[in-house]
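Quick start: read one record
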Amino acid sequence: MKYSDKLNGYWEEGYHYYLEFKDETLTVRDYRRAIALETGCSYDAAALERGERTVIELKNNVLTTCWDGSPMSVIKELAYENGELALLKCYLEEEETLYTLKKVDHSPFDHIIIRDDEFLDKLQGVWKQWHGSGKLVITGRTLRWEPFSEAEKFHVISYKYSPDKVKLVPENLIRSEFRGFTAIDVEKDMLTTYMMVYDMSVPMTVFAREDMLDKIAVPGAALREPRNTMMHVSAPPMPGLMTGFTGMMGMGQPSDGGAKPVQEPAPDSKPEDPDAPTPRFCPECGYALRGMTAKFCPECGSDLRGPAVNFCPDCGYLLRDLTVKFCPECGRKLK
């Protein structure tokens, strides 16, 4: 079997998918740079070299599965044409989406600067939770959130597009949790933890040295708006998130100190119709279901075929009674 250098290497769609070909092996990463699929592949290398449209056959084409193990989203077709890759994804055998990928000369983590040597000494020791009893303990390049988690390895990093902002992230550099939070901002006198929701990073709570707990500028860090960690732009609206976060496990910010979803509409969106039906969200993860026919949540795989569940689009309150006209939490008109 022959392989083509035209195909070998890295391919990027820009946001959703990042592919790497190494002869007979294809690795597909999602927008978090986590591996979604690693499989064998085959194709007509001679036809590809001649510039002809070439379909790439995959031994395994399943990207995500449902709770029962059945395929949720699959690569229906992957083809090379005119120097680009066309990836046709099919969701639950109903919804098809076409992605176009271009070849790039950088690895999946080329945008990351590792800064362990520069910052590790300053981070060692105990950081206490502001308005809570938890603490972060950093020893070497391991971090433990007491009393909830075992020690886990991390890297101190910055992103090339924002070199002055320093973060702690899991050792594998992709979305992988420190038993509850997914990134930590390193600031002068405090560490601010974040939780990942979809591809959004949501501020949770603050840790500081014990002698600085009464001096740090809080709640400034804890009140930052949710932000998209991969697109480097303002976050879109996030219906389904609860406002007034109290921190993980009920510990952290006071009820009025949480991050609130960004409310600005998308540039091309129409003004909100107050009489429009309440959008439907997954009852498990809050994912916004754009269509009403989905059987399983495309984010977490939860079965949606049971009783309908809605969340208030303003505050995220779980509406178990779908006949109410106003949100019991914030008063938003629902019907």
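The first strand starts at residue 9 and ends at 12.
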